[in-house]
Every structure is written in structure tokens, then in C-alpha cells.
Amino acid sequence: MWELDYWIQSLGVTVVAAPAMLLAVLGLLSLLGRLKSEQTISRIVQCGVVVGLMASLALLGLMLVTGRRHIEFGFGHWVSIPNYDFWIKFEFDRLNVPFVLLTFILCGTISAFSTRYMHRESGYVRFFVLFALFQLGMIVTSLACTIETLFAGWEMVGLSSALLVAFFQERPAPVRNGLRVWIVYRVSDAALLMASVVVHHLTGSGDFDNFLGRAAWPEGHGSLEGSSALLVGLLLLLAAAGKSALIPFCGWLPRAMEGPTPSSAVFYGALSVHLGAFLLLRASPILDVSPPLCVVIVVLGLATALFASLAGRVQTDIKSALSFASLTQVGLIVAEIGFGLRYIALVHIIGHACLRTLQFVRAPTLLRDYNAIENAIGDRLSPGAVPMSRRLSDRVAAWFYRLALERGYFDAVLTDYLVRPFVRAFEWCDALERRWTHFLSGDPTPASDKADRSPSSLDDLA
Amino acid sequence: MTDLHFPWLELSILIPLIGAVLVQRLRDPVQARTWSVVASGLTLMSAFAAWEDFGLLNAKEADDAWHLLSRLFGHELFVIDQLSAPLLPLTALLYTLTIFTTLRTKIRRFSFPWTLVSEAITLATLSCKLPWLVIVLLAAGTVPAFVELRTRGQSTRVYSLHMGLFVGLLVVGGAFVAIEGERVHSLLAILPLLAAVCVRSGVVPFHCWMTDLFEKATFGTALLTTVPIAGAYAAIRLVLPIAPGWVLQSIGIISLVTAVYAAGMALVQKEGRRFFCYLFLSHSALVLSGLEMVTSIGLTGALCVWLSMILSLGGFGLTLRALESRRGRLSLIDFQGLYSHTPTLAVCFALTGLASVGFPGTAGFVGGELLVDGAVETYPHFGIAVVIAAALNGIAVVQAYFRLFTGKIHVSTVDLSIGPRERIAMLTLVAMLLLGGLSPQFIVESRHHAATELLDQRATLSNDEVPPHQP
Fold first, then answer.
1. Of the candidates B216, B267, B448, which has its C-beta nearest A426's C-beta?
2. Which end of chain A is more exposed for a tag (fewer CB within 10 A), N or C?
3. Domain map (residue ranges) of chain B
């Protein structure tokens, strides 16, 4: 039995260490300017992904053979002082084993695809460093056994996403969209951090066992009840909404399509976009004890699905259409979680992630694919079912069309009622401070004023 | 009291002073830089040796060996303790790297002798626990920046006004403390000291001197005057031991408001220096709020953030300084697109900036978590301010990164790539930040010991109910 535990521990450590080493090697070599050859990068990435995948498959095999449904392994106390412990602890269970396998398989596939897609691209090294950061973030988030560890992975995914959206950084549009994605992610991170702190205070530690129960997923019984469960649940839902682009944060998803297609596929078609749903699945014991929270989740999920389905119908480019299609399914998955259908939601995530990744990576050759299909059948493709809009009056149809085209006005509302007043208030304070400082110093225009040549940078964003 | 094996503290104060005298005599600025690097490098080694020696002694605090100053003044002036032990080498490192990375184009503007004097004063302040000497050294620490402003022909009114107020309040508070003796101190003694700390730390509304200093002094001098956070040290040595809990917590709330306000201001800045200044103000206010929580966890978090801040914001400032020396004042309005010219600088900018906001895997992460934890416990309704400030600072850092390094293709006829000196300095800081992030136990544990000692000291000196070992 000792040998079995030893193997389990070793394999578990390998699953986490493989992407960590991959990031360390790529990051270090690129920082020192030693990473030049595309072939070398490709081999390092393949090596990292294959080692991680093999270890997780072996661990799954051991779980199936021994009948163990829940395995914990860790690196011990990362930080330990009186009254504060930070464990680095991971777990394997029915929820995260599929997620980890999905991560390794899709990341492996997409990295192989990217070696050709990104060939001779000036940011080739940067792409793979960020890709490695994303993969590590996904693995850490999926396997996390404490809310603090989950938060660490969550932030890594966020940063890599934002920087990859801005990958084509010679143009301003991808950069602006990358910044917008980052802003939404920071809101999401802040909500998760608050949830982490509240959990720490309510249960004494951030260990999932303490507030989600010791039983294997999904049979755990949460220790939080009533208003505590509702508060933590709402904070987690806010974090999930930001990460999975649920209403009202859905505006960033089509903007994220500015990034390279392979990263769009694996981030917004497959893994990252489902991370919010994963978080809700992980926290499902809290949902079980708080019916009002479930109602909120169902409403949010269905509203997102409905909106995304509507918005997706008026998109004029394939990646945006796919992003809204993806969002529709995410909304449905979230609603399923709210209804208590945990396994269906998990299967839905896996199926949807695989299908959408395939659609995304085929997106650049869509016209060619259509052409090939039409040549094969010797006729035009049928236009499909009669759209709903034909059954509506012109005025109502136009209203819906505009609503969909403007993406539900969510971006506009957030900009007009949140970002702009915020920026204006601080600009007013800035102007006031400058006047006060100039009054005190009696100076003419200071040097920093000479750098100002156009309106506020956040205004561009707004 | 335990003695170090060598007078490391006196040496680390004396070396930069001797260096300053020698460098002052040199006419060639390149030579001046070289000798300044040597002097500050030796100071760094001495400060590091003091830390190591202190660690080996396993004592609460230690005097210098041979008691040279005791023979002169009848009292040992400089001691090293859990609080100051890592602060000394980190501060010395910041000075060394700042001098080391000063480019040829800037060496005529940057005063090496005064920088060495400033280093000696700062290290002396951090090695001192005697209230009156701390006050004198804090007052002396304001002089180098003042001299530089005068030399550059800039208006010193804002700086002089605030620093005059700072020194005046320190003296008044110190005088009342001395008059009141050993008994519990009145608000007449505590409030002036507290106000002095607020002025020096740039707590709103006393922060305008910092933006003014960043506008008018060289970036290096402004960085070195602010980043070691002398105000926080004054708070620990002069206020924390004697102020009642409710006073500290009130100031803590004002510090939290400052942290959010400065983070918001950093977001709307249109110029690099002002942006950095507000980013720094937000962080220093977070440290101050942690110090005023008077709980073990909050204090440990604040001390951890303080250390990581010296490295991260020091590195971030040096990156901005390097960019500024290539491009002049940095506009954050238009995209600069410098990534293709200076990719290493861009990566260092991003890493140090993210480390300052406590990104996972960097030295600030655990400190940030502890600070949030302590803040929510101490201020249930205001604790969320730490999270908001961290979120806004994170947005500000990435926004600045995008503005400076991306958005267009920058065309330049001159080479803008990172120089070997800058590469060494940046990679050293980045390596330290990552190592501190991957293995934080050592630093967190040492900060916890320092926090526990401070709380014990406070419990002894003040009448206030202090739960020393409770989170």
C-alpha cells in the first residue's frame, strides 16, 4: 500500500510539475534570449504536455483499478505561521480528472496546431510562453484543493488570456480589447479573493474539505449555511460570471477573438470560458444548501444563453459567431448546475469544449470547407430553418436585431454608468490636485503636463 | 544585548559617507559613477553581512561589535533587530542598482555624492531605535532631495512646506513624549507624531509633495527618497508602541481610503512619473494600513508587502527610469510600441509591476493575502478596500504596459535595447521576486517574528489592550 501511495504521490506531483517546468524552461530561456529555434520550442512544449498527460492518465488508471474516487496530494505547508496556513494541496476526483485530461489533450492538440499556424510569426516565443502559463493556470485551478491555490491558478489563466488577446500588439485594437478583458478578469479575481477571505474567516482555513465537505465530489455537504452560504456563493458566482462571460460581463468574449485563432479556440471555445462553470461545480455543496443561490444561477445562466443565442445570429464574422455560440452553451451549462444536474453539466462541458475547439481551428478555412461540401453534394447548402424574425412584426424584429447587434448594450451600460463616471471623478481630482500643487509651488506648467497631448487613455477604452 | 561579530552596521553607514567625500572630489562623472558603485556595493555587502550575522546569532536584537559609538556617545546608537535585518540589505541593494543603472546620458544630472549621503542616512535610520535619533535622521533624510531640487533650479516650496511640517510635527510629538516620560502618553504627544507619519507617507491629503518631487527631481532621487518608505519606519518606531488602538485604526481607515484613491488616480494618469508616484502611494498606504491593524496577521502582511515592495516597485521604477532615459518623459496617452526594441525591459516591467500587485508566484502574493486577511478582520466594512486597491493597481500596471510597449510599431534610428548594466539589475530583481514568490516561508516567518516582537513591545509600552499573538 505504501508503494501505491508513493506512486500516486509521484504521479500527482508530475501532473502539476510538468506544466510548471514547461513554463519555467520557456520563460527562463526566453528571458535570457536563448530561445530561437521554433523546433526546439515545439519539442519542449510537446514534451511538457505528453509527460503531464501520461501522468494524469496513469493516475486515472490507478484510481479505476483501486476504486479510489478521491486522491489528495500536496507539497506541504507553503507558508505556515501561527494562525495562518497556506497549503499547496491538490486533489483528483470525478470532477477534475476529466478537466485535467481535457486540458492536456486540447493544449497538446492546439500546441501542435500552433507550431504550424504561428510559423515565422514574430511573437512565436511569446505565444508559447503565455500558452504554458495558461496551461499551468488551468491545471492548478482544476486540481486545487484550497481556495487560495485555486485563486493562484485563476489569476494565471486571466493574465495569459489578456496578453494573448493583445498578441498582435502592433495594432491598437487588440491591445484595447486585451485591456478590457483584463479589467473584467480583475473584477472576477477580486470577487474570488473576497470569497477566499470570507471562507477563511468562517471556517478557519481555505481548505475545500472544511467548507465543501470531505466526501468525494459531488456528494460533499457544505459546512456553510444560510446567509454565509449565500454570501460566499454570490461572490463565487460573480467570479464565475467574469471568467465565463455571463451577463453582464459578456461583452469581452467577442472582443477576445482578436487573439490568434489557436488561443481563441482553446481559451474561449474550450477551457477558459468553462472555468466559471467549473468553479460553480466545485462549489456545488454550497449551492445545495442555498436554494436562493440556485435560483440566481439558473436565471443568470438562462438569460446568458438566451442573449448569446440572439446576439450570435447577427454576427458577421465566424469567430464572433462561434464565441456567442460558445456563450450560449456556457449559459445552458450554468443553468444545469443551478438545477442540480452536476454530471450532465460536466459531460456538457467536455463535449462542448471538444466540438468548439474543432470549429474554432477550422474557422479560418470555413469558406474552403463550404466550397468542398458544396462541390461534393453538387448543390448549394440549404439555408436552414425559417428564422424566428419572419414571424415577428418589422418593428419588434428591428428592435431585437438592434439589441443583438449592440450586444445587449451591456458594454455601453457598463461604460456609461461605471467606467466613465469613475474616470471623470478621478480626472476631476487629478485636475484639482494639479491646481493645488501649482498654487503651492507657484510654478509654470510642470514637465508632466507636456506629455499630455490627447484625452485620457481610459476614455479610449470607454 | 548580543553583539555582532563585526561592526557591520557602523561600516554600512560609514562606507557611503566616505564614498560621498571621495566622489565629491572627482570631476569626471564616469569615474564618479564607478566609485559610487564600488562604495554602494561595499555598503550592500556590509548590510548583507549584518543580516547574515544577526541570523546566526538567533537573537532578538544585536549591537555592533567593539562598541565604537558607545565609547564616543556613551550609548549604542545603532542596533539590528528582526524588523530592520532584511530592510538594510534590500535598501542598500536598491541604492546600488539605482547608481549602477544610471546611464551615461544622465550621469551629469544625477548627484552621486548626495545619493551616497542619502544611503548612509537611510541605513542609519533603519538601524536606529532611539526616538530622538530617529527623528533627527528622518529630518536629515529630507535634505538630499531638497539639495537636488535647489541644484536643478526647481521650486522647492511644496517639498519644503511638507517636509518642514513633517519635521515640525516630529519635534513637537517627540518633545511631548519626552516630557510625559514613562507614563501613558496623551493625544498631544501621539497625534503630532501620527500626523508626521501621514505627511511622510503621503497619506491623502498630504501627498502632493510626492507628485511634486517626482515632477521636479531626477527619477533616481525621487525613487530613493520614497521607496524605502521612511514614513512606515517612523510609524513603527515612534507611533506604534504608544498610540491607542482606536487612533491607529482610525488612521488605518484613512490609509485604506488613500490606497483606493491613489490606485484610482494611477489609472487616469497621462505621464509615467505621476503614474508611478500614485502606484507607489497606493502601496505605501496599504503597508501603513497593515501596520496600524495591530494584529499579528495584518502586521506580518504589511511587513511582507513592505519588503516585496522595495524589490518590485524599485525594479518597476528602474524600468521606467531606463525607458525615460531613452525617450524622455513618458506619455501614457498614446501607444509607444517599444516592445520590439526592448523586449527584455518590457518583460521586466510586466513582471515587477505584477509582483507589486501580488501576482501569484511572486514575492508579493502571500504578503497581499495576509494583508487582505488582516484588513477584513480588523475593518469588517473597510477591509474590502485592500482588494479594490489591488484590483485597480493591477489594471493600472497592465494599462501602462500596453501603453508603453504595444499598440504600434515604434520606428527609431537609435538603439533602444536594454544595456548590460540594466539587464543585470533587472534580472537580479526579477530573480529575487520570483524566488521570494516560490519559497516565501523564510521571509514570512521572519516578518512574523518581527511583528510579534513589535506587538510585545507595544503591549509593554502602551496601556492599550493588545492581543499580541492573535490574528
1. B267
2. N
3. 1-129, 131-243, 244-471
